[in-house]
Amino acid sequence: MSHAENSEEILAVLDAIGGGVTITTARRELADRIIAAIAVGAYSPGEQLPSERELAERQGVSRVTVRGAIEIVREKGLLSSRRGRGGGTFVTDINVDQVAPGTTRRVLEDEVPRLKAFMDFRCLIAGLEARTAAERRTPRQAEKLICILADFCATDDTSEARKIDVELHKLITVMAANEQLAAVTAQLHARATMGFGAEPYPPQYLQRARLEHSDLVHGIVEQDLEGAYQAAYRHFSLTLTIAQDAFEQSLASIA
Questions:
Q1: Strand partners, 90
Q2: Quick check: 9 pLDDT over 60?
Q3: H/E element, 150
Q4: Contacts of 46 (CB under 8 A, 6+ apart)
Q5: Per DSSP, which regions of the chain are E strands?
Q6: pTM of the model
Q7: pLDDT tens, residue by residue, 18-75
Q8: At the topology level of CATH, where does 3-96 sit?
Q9: Distance CA 149, CA 100 (A)
Q10: CATH number of this structure's domain 103-253, picked from the four choices 3.40.720, 3.30.1340, 1.20.120, 1.10.1510
């Protein structure tokens, strides 16, 4: 048995004999964060959650904690499991505020101020990366970026849009060709997405994202350095807008 597996067995035993108060709290806190992530559109109905291992790594917790958190969310009807090939844990289309009233508000009342505090820095870094990408991009990279944009604009599936969004921004990072800048960008992305690494894409914001991606790609392809910078700054503020709107909706749902 590996060290990681042995540690998880110990945690499970502690929890079972009543010594897992901290573990139980961690499970509930992570469950609340997963519920809030679903509420803001970081995970869409029908979309599969990352594996337990991936969630554990991103959230800095054990797989025991992840497993317990997922079970809590599943019991509320927000997740369902499928076995066999293509199986996993999937988001249902149940309204979050109906089955977990107050949860989104509790999470976002801490999360939104934190996002506000560092969002300007994140947008500045995103603008710098886009400007550098515009300056350094190759013709082949520009062609590929245009193709990715076309795919993004053609889909109405928010889950698919999120995957294409990741592909688009990864290519922009490659275009900028700076490892230090890429590392900072990745760190800020993790912070902006509550550690889940999934940008929120509620359906009502998809058209705005299409327009902002189009402006961003145009600036990079045309090597309009200032245009690329400004487009990236505007686009990366969308995450905060979505979180703020979700928080306001959660307040209205319990008013």
A1: 48, 80
A2: no
A3: helix 139-154
A4: 90, 91, 93, 159
A5: 79-82, 88-91
A6: 0.84
A7: 555 566 799 999 999 999 999 999 999 999 999 999 999 999 999 999 999 999 999 9
A8: Arc Repressor Mutant, subunit A (1.10.10)
A9: 36
A10: 1.20.120
